[in-house]
Amino acid sequence: MKKVAQPPRSYADIIRRSFTSLLLTIGLIIVLTVSVTLTIDQLVRAQEQAARLSANLQVTQVSNFQDWLTVNRGSGLNSHNTFILIKNTNGSTTSLLPNGKNPTLAGSWQVPFTHLIYIKKMGLYFSETLTAGNKTYLLYIGMHVLLGNLHVLIAVLIIAIGLSLLIGLLFVRRLANRISQPTIELAHAAQQAAANPEVTQPKLPQPTEPVEINQLAKDFNQLLAAQNDRLRHERQFISDASHELRTPIATIRGNIKLIERHSAKHPEVIPESLGFIDQESLRMQHLIENLLHLSRADRATVDLQALDVATLAQGVVNHYQPLVSQPLTFDGPDHPAMALGDTDMLHQILTALLDNAHKYSPDDQGITVTVAQAENTVTLAVADHGRGISDADRQHIFERFYRVDASRSNQVEGSGLGLSIVAQLVQLNQGQIAVTANQPQGTVFTVTLQAAPQS
């Protein structure tokens, strides 16, 4: 048979059920404890009374009800709740009851491990066998007072527990509403935020207490802040990409229309227009390739290997020198500088940094590539003597499509994605990149990698 799933419970339901169970458990424990304590106390008293009666019986022989009353007074027993059976030497039994009746012990039930016996139609009794002289006395002390006290006690406790439960449930309901209110408000705010995922989300309410809800709201707000920042970057990226693609497309279409209108009468415009089309299409190609690099870098996973950064940097410098007019200088250690990284990605990082230094440096100013090794790190630095980067621009140069000195951005080739790709690749290699000023003029890009463990 398939088990029916229980519906989820609210704070109020959980607290109410737990409180009711706790109160009932405490009440049951109190009832049992008091009942057992009271019963033991009554049994001890009955045992003491039986001992006193046994001592009196050693002195006074009981043969009738009047003798029994005399002995009973000295023992402190209540004659109305107590009776005795005397077993005579001839085998007969004498019953000494206040009303003169003989008790019917048939069908009586002995409580295990105790002196308590339940006599049908008479009630619960404490039984004890006493021997005095040549007679055996069967003493039965009524537990009517004990039962009466237990009935009163249980009734009082039931009333007290009922009132406590009623008052407690009202208090629990108020407490549960008070506790759950911040959670409900937080859930409603989160639902509203989730209903408009494309809109920048406001901060969720952050109650001061309970502490757990306060921390949960704080974590949610941090998550929303990260989401808002990511959404802002995506919007800016789409806007910048659209803007960068719009310019070459407009140039290509303009030159095509120029050829269509004037090529018949002025054929000399054809080579010039084709040159512009080729230039702008190449610019679009580079832009799309860079976008693909960023997209792949966002999803890439890298298996870092130990490699010699000094050898890699020396090879890139030697290969790059014939392609640029600035003199390149390599400064590195004589021994291998082993770091954890990916060879292809580090090659791409260094090439992109050299491209950046080449574009923003005069032809007669050199570019220096430095590799240095510390105890736990290996650094790769590219320093130029170009125009430099202001402090305000340094905070944004790794953002996508950001161009330093926008008024002259058209004079320098590029899409503004090169340093964004570099930053992403450095992160994939579990490294860090920093940009500082190069004295007296210029910029230094420093990539810090983890040193490879020595075998």
TrEMBL record:
Enzyme class: transferase
Pfam families, per database record: HATPase_c, HisKA
Name of the protein: histidine kinase
Protein source organism: Levilactobacillus zymae
Catalytic activity: ATP + protein L-histidine = ADP + protein N-phospho-L-histidine
SMART domains in UniProt: HATPase_c (SM00387), HisKA (SM00388)
Limits of the Histidine kinase domain: 240-453
InterPro entries membership: HAMP_dom (IPR003660), HATPase_C_sf (IPR036890), HATPase_dom (IPR003594), His_kinase_dom (IPR005467), HisK_dim/P_dom (IPR003661), HisK_dim/P_sf (IPR036097), Sig_transdc_His_kin-like_C (IPR004358), TCS_sensor_his_kinase (IPR050428)
EC number of the protein: 2.7.13.3
